[in-house]
Each structure stands twice: as C-alpha cells, then as structure tokens.
C-alpha cells in the first residue's frame, strides 16, 4: 500500500504486480494463483491490478510476454551457433526456473496460448527467418524446415520437469550443445 503523501508511480506499481505475478503463477499456475496473494506481494489493491491488466488471464498473458522478452534479451539467438544457443538457453532455465514453470503451466492449462501472443509469435517468426537465411547461405542444414530446427533447438534446451528423469543442474551445458549438434547434423 502507498504511504500517505507519497506520489503514485504507475510504472513501479505495474512492475511490482508483474514481479509478484511471476512468482505466483510459477508456483501455482493460472488456476491455482490467487489475486489476493499477488496484490499483497505487490503492495497494491485489486482495483490497481485490474486497472492495469483487466483480468487474471490478461495478467498471465502479460507475465508470459514478459518472460519471453526477458529470455530473448538475456540469451539472443546466434544462428551460426545453434548448439551454443541451446546450451545458453538451458543455463538460463537453470538460473531462472520460474520461466520454465510458467511456460509449462501455459502449456498444461491453456494449450500453449502464450506462444500465440503477438509479441511471442513475432519473436519466433524472427528466429525462423534468421534460420531460413542461414540455410540459404549454407550455414545451417536444410535437412529440416527452419521451424523444425527452432523447435529441436528449444526442445533440447529445456530441463525435464515433472518426471523421475531429470538432467542434473551439474550437467555441463556442452552436453546440450552436443545433442543439438547431433540432431542437426546432416
């Protein structure tokens, strides 16, 4: 809650809501998340949350968009080194497990709706276009369509969740790079 006499800062309030929602959604998913816990952690009220995001579902969309942008900014794709890119994404997932948890919740509860958000779709389109250009230049295999290459790269970069078979955090990321290299070798 805002201290008396302190000016409102809508950008800070929105940021606090997003940060609190990332924590809440990663722990509980969309269905299990509680707006009350988000507003308490964000030190705001429900009216502010709904003013910025209009619904819990729209807040989840904003969180999903945020985590994709954060990941793209933190780990830019190097089309000339897709195995290295996969290893860096793997390391990013280990450093920030909330990202993978939210993506998993999105897949389980919403059928991957977050992947269809305009910003996310554009990020993936740009990656596919980079792969296509690298294929045309002979730098990346043409054995698979660019979309499949992106999928292979990203799928192999994800630590397994929800199974008894996990890749230990101590696993060198070069194993991930080796797997992508092997998958994409002609």
UniProtKB/TrEMBL annotation:
Alphabetical UniProt keywords: DNA-binding
Coiled-coil residues: none
PANTHER family linked to this entry: HTH-TYPE TRANSCRIPTIONAL REPRESSOR SCO4008 (PTHR30328:SF54), TRANSCRIPTIONAL REPRESSOR (PTHR30328)
Protein name: HTH tetR-type domain-containing protein
Residue intervals of the HTH tetR-type domain: 11-71
Pfam family name, one: TetR_N
Domain of life: Bacteria
Residues annotated to bind DNA: 34-53
């Amino acid at each position: 809650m805002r201290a008396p006499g302190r000016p409102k800062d809508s950008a800070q309030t929105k940021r606090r809501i997003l940060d609190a929602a990332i924590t809440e959604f990663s722990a509980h998913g969309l269905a299990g998340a509680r707006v009350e816990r988000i507003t308490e952690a964000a030190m705001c009220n429900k009216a502010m949350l709904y003013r910025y995001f209009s619904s819990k579902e729209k807040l989840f969309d904003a969180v999903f968009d945020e985590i994709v942008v954060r990941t793209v900014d933190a780990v830019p794709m190097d089309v000339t080194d897709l195995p290295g890119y996969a290893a860096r994404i793997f390391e990013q997932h280990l450093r920030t497990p909330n990202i993978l948890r939210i993506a998993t919740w999105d897949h389980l509860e919403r059928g991957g709706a977050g992947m269809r958000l305009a910003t996310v779709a554009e990020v993936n389109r740009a990656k596919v276009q980079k792969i296509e250009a690298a294929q045309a230049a002979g730098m990346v295999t043409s054995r698979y369509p660019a979309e499949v290459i992106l999928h292979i790269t990203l799928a192999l970069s994800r630590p397994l969740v929800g199974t008894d078979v996990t890749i230990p955090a101590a696993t060198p990321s070069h194993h991930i790079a080796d797997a992508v290299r092997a998958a994409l070798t002609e």
